Amino acid sequence: MLAFVILVAAGGVFRIVIQTSVQLSQSAAHSSLTQARLTGLSNAQRESLRLVLSLDALRAHPETSADAARLQRGLFLRQLHAAVAQFEVDSSEGTQIQQILTRFASFPWERLDDPAQRDIARSSAVALVVTSERTVKDLYDQQESSFFQGNADSLEVNRRSQVALAELIGLVLALVVSWVVMLTRRARGDAVRSYDALLKEMQVSRLLQEDLAHQVGHDPLTGLANRSRMMELIEAALHRGQRSGALVGVLFIDLDHFKVVNDAFGHGAGDEVLRMSAERMLGLVRAGDTVGRLGGDEFVALIEPLSSPAELVALADRLIAAISDPIQIRGQDVTIGASIGAAVNLDGFTSGSKLLDHADIAAYRAKAAGRGRTVFFDVQLSHELQDRADQEAAIRVGLANDEFVLHYQPLLEVRTGLVNGYEALIRWQRPERGLVFPDSFIPIAEQSSLICDLDRWVLHEATRQLAVWVRDEPEASEHCTIAVNISGRHLAESSIVPDVVQALANADIPASRLVLEITETVFVDTPRLVSHLRALRDLGVAISLDDFGTGYTSIGQLAHLHADILKIDRSFVSSEAPGAGELIALMINAAHAFGMHVVAEGIETGDQFAFVRELGCDSAQGFLFARPQPAATIMVGTVGSDATAHAMHEGA
Amino acid sequence: VSLFEFPTREPSRTKDGLRPTLAILVISVLAACSSAPASSPAKAPDPYRAVMVKPAVLRAGQAVPLPKKKPILTLAGKISKTNANKALMLDAGSLDEMGVMKVRLYEPTVKKQMSFQGVWLADVLKVAGVDKSASSVHFTALDDFQADLTTAQIAQGGVFLATKSGDGAPIDIENGGPTRIVFMDGVKAGKNEDAWIWSLKTLDVK
How many CB atoms lie within 10 A of CB A610? Predict the structure, then answer.
């Protein structure tokens, strides 16, 4: 009897051990396959980044770097071949990498050797590498997560079947070995550390993280739903509401004084404030209600079903109270607040974007009314919205009917007095109203994505015009750039880089001929903005910091602003205030120290010109030389009057 | 013809040399349960089949002139035959003169059967006059990848310096050119994928 019990017990142990060893070996096989894929993908990724760098070098030293770029292209493709071999032929991953390979194979690389085509070919090549790098990175992340998931799963199984400690240690060791392998993946001589440095240098990781976050629907910082996910949820709730008759409420929550915290304590502190605020909001909403982050310091809460609008406002007030509780940052109490706009699907409309829009307008109103309060979207706001919608519609119609025109104002190189560029300025030739200046329609357009449509139109029209000048007056236009104003909103859109690439390609002008002017106030250091600016500069486009001096950028920050050109605001040039001159001198010196080109705006008198010239300003723009005028009346390369000669003479 | 007599080789049983700890563990667990299948003895691989395309005209002991064309491979270190600044520079032509063989093998990095033309690496080392005291060769690739093979591994044979594709065309960078190390099926040193060094730049004999 006793012997029988022992036998049964031994049989049980035996089964468990066998089962476990099978699991372990399967897990090892799985790990090693995934490991090979990870290695292949990360190698391809690294070499593609190297390819971008070599294309950069090619721009700087076309003669000496061509061979290196060709070599790097080959090394990259070699790693892609190796990576693609790790996947089954018909798997989605295999197909994706194969597509990348095909795109690279069909790219007209020989155009990089042709000086006339080099810039355009280079920017397309860089764009191609960057998109492929992103795809490879996505695949890499997928593989990586499944790798660790697989190992975690087998660990869990082992724990449940209570295997001996030895096997667990074995598995952990196996994991450690695979980590070591990952670090020693077909590394270059300079190994992994420099690869990370390379990534950092390229600053693509941030961009990649954002894209990835977008795909999974979450904001990486707070873990809340992101904008696109939130829009889906609101739409779904509205559909449910339409069927059931339930009320759906949306709160648009805009943090007050967030910028102050960010500026005073740094971005780390700002992130902490965002996380804390998110946590507090989540603590107040009911289970089943959703809080999302739209970006920056804007949040949204979806409350559904809602018993009455009053319930929504009451919740909003509780949220404000919670957010306004002091937050400890590095031992200091920091207090922020919130302005909230509330909107409910009262009249049964079902568009999520419309509901969110209403809440946004109400939040804007709450801010304007002194912050720290809730405003409910109502009829009066509705009228304002209607006005805005009418004006927006008129702009849309105007765009469709070609009512917009560009006027061009020349920039002069101070040293020579020659025209070295034009700034394109938009005007609205509105039927029955005459020529409308941008200050009366741009602010309206800026409240929606309409501004991006306007920006795109300007980009295309201005680059087209430059192409016409280059064709008709190749000599006179030889040194001319074209400057286009880009709104902060458009800059934050992921479409900005493709928009610019498209405009350049359509006009067939090199990126180096295009200047994007961005006002100082939108030059906030948000990651998305910075990554877009970097991508644009990588294309070869120059970034100009417009209206400098009107915002709150300190001169010391200039080094970090990713700009090539600094435009001193006209108010400084025309200022009679004591110290204004010294201030201009300071800006010019600082900008030069950071390698920036300086433009003085609003030069109206010979004295002003002589003054900025004395201070070493590089370019000047203003009525003294020429007013903005339609392309038809411009003689390229000249200011069309003898004002320059006069000014040069006076200044001399 | 400078072909080696190749000894019979035991192919490694470890499928994945990267995780020996686990393999040993699994095996020992299985062994302890006395129910593990006994490991079957390895079958000897077929002798390497290589076809001669061009006989060697440049053999061990002969001087190697400076390359007429752009050098594609440089040997340095413990070698007696040099043609430039203590190094031996070789262009495609001088590699050809060491004899051209054609081989067919399984290429593990792209997981395909492939043909190559080139020369046994051992023959290249003989032409270079490798010192008897040398114990390893340190390879550096154009992407700065580095790996080593011992001279014993190379002398055992089956290590091939591919200088052309199977059809005789140069190997482009995208396919691991201009020269690369490949291993005949079953060669032990080739089990380690890192030893399949492509886009070779230099061989430093140590």
Answer: 16
Q: Whole-angstrom Cα distance, residue A635 to residue A624?
A: 17
Tell me the sheet residues that pair with B119. Answer: B161
Residues 6+ apart with CB under 8 A from A605: A624
* DSSP reduced 3-state for A342: strand
Q: Which of residues 67-106 of A touch B (CB under 8 A)?
A: 70-71, 73-75, 77-78, 81-82, 84-86
Terminal-residue alpha carbon distance, chain B: 27
Tokens of A302: 């979806």
Reduced 3-state DSSP string for chain B:
CCCCCCCCCCCCCCCCCCCHHHHHHHHHHHHHCCCCCCCCCCCCCCCCCEEEEECCCCCCCCCCCCCCCCCCEEEEECECCCCECCEEEECHHHHHHCCEEEEEEEECCCCEEEEEEEEEHHHHHHHHCECCCCCEEEEEECCCCEEEEEHHHHHCCCEEEEEEECCCCECCHHHCCCCEEEECCCCHHHHCHHHCCCCEEEEEEC
* Alpha-carbon span A579 to A576, nearest angstrom: 9
CA-based nearest distance A531→chain B, Å: 28
> What's the CA gap between B20 and A177, in Å, rounded?
9
Beta-carbon separation of B144 and A190 below 8 A: yes
Evaluate the CA torsion angle A276, A278, A279, A283 in order and state its sign: positive
Residue-wise pLDDT for A233-287, tens only, equals 898 889 888 888 888 999 999 998 888 787 777 777 888 899 999 999 999 998 8
Report whether B102 contacts B115 (CB < 8 A). yes
Query: How far is Cα A342 from Cα B51, in angstroms, rounded to an integer?
Result: 82
Query: Exposed, middle or buried: residue A110 (CB in 10 Å: 0-12, 13-18, 19+)?
Result: exposed
Q: Are A566 and A558 in contact (CB under 8 A)?
A: yes
A9-23, A277-291, B86-100, range with the lowest pLDDT: A9-23
- Please report the beta strands in A416-464, taking only residues with DSSP state E, as ranges in sequence order: 419-430, 434-436
Judge: A21–B172 Cβ closer than 8 Å, yes or no: no
pTM of the model: 0.42
User: Between chain A and chain B, how many beta carbons pairs sit less than 8 Å apart?
Assistant: 96
Residue A259 sits at φ, ψ, to 5 deg, of -60, -35
Can you tell me the ipTM of this complex? 0.75
